[in-house]
Write a structure and sequence with these properties.
Length: about 200
């Protein structure tokens, strides 16, 4: 879970709570809407933030932070518009599926490749992971090999579309990271996949 903490005034980290001008901390949800938890501590006490847009102020190092208050979305946007405007886009994920024991792309992969290429172009990204997987049919050594071949197939297809090879981190896990956990030798199509994450 990603926790994003926004600081106002001159603060660059929680240590800035010792500054005479003080620090405001606001906890905002991640791109998926989930909220973690953060504790803001000074020499005199601490305040825990655990709800979306909860905020506390630490004016001096020898004073406890203020009680948590929940800010409206509009207030958060007003306070941190410049910071929020610079926030990177959340990663995008694409999946490509394969026939049993095969590493060649299926016809339906073309539409997903086009979407992935568009996402790369919009972001001007040179930071992608291409990760191959297999189901649990056969031994793991063979499955690692096929998962690498699948990752290579997707990477080559992206290269053909104009994505630079040095922008791709190619990995493979064989049967070790299933999307759907199964017993050994179970044919599970959703595990025969390549996942592409674009950051």
């Amino acid at each position: 879970m990603i926790i994003r903490i926004l600081f106002s005034v001159l603060a660059a980290s929680l240590l800035a709570a010792c500054c005479s001008s003080g620090t405001t901390v606001v906890l905002i949800p991640d791109a998926g809407g989930k909220v973690g938890q953060v504790e803001v501590t000074t020499k005199a006490g601490s305040t825990v933030l655990s709800k979306a847009n909860e905020s506390t102020e630490a004016e001096k190092a020898d004073q406890a932070p203020s009680q948590a208050v929940q800010l409206s979305g509009e207030k958060v946007n007003d306070m941190f518009a410049a910071t929020l405007a610079k926030e990177p886009m959340a990663p995008e994920h694409f999946r490509f599926y394969f026939a049993t024991g095969r590493a060649d792309l299926l016809v339906e992969a073309n539409a997903e490749l086009a979407k992935a290429k568009t996402a790369i172009d919009v972001r001007k990204s040179c930071d992608l992971s291409v990760i191959g997987h297999s189901d649990r049919v056969g031994d793991n050594s063979t499955n690692k090999g096929i998962s690498l071949q699948r990752a290579d197939s997707v990477a080559k297809a992206l290269t053909t579309l104009g994505v630079a090879g040095n922008c791709m981190d190619i990995r493979y896990y064989g049967e070790n990271d299933p999307a759907i956990p199964t017993a050994d030798n179970v044919d599970e199509p959703r595990n025969r996949r390549v996942e592409v994450e674009i950051r």
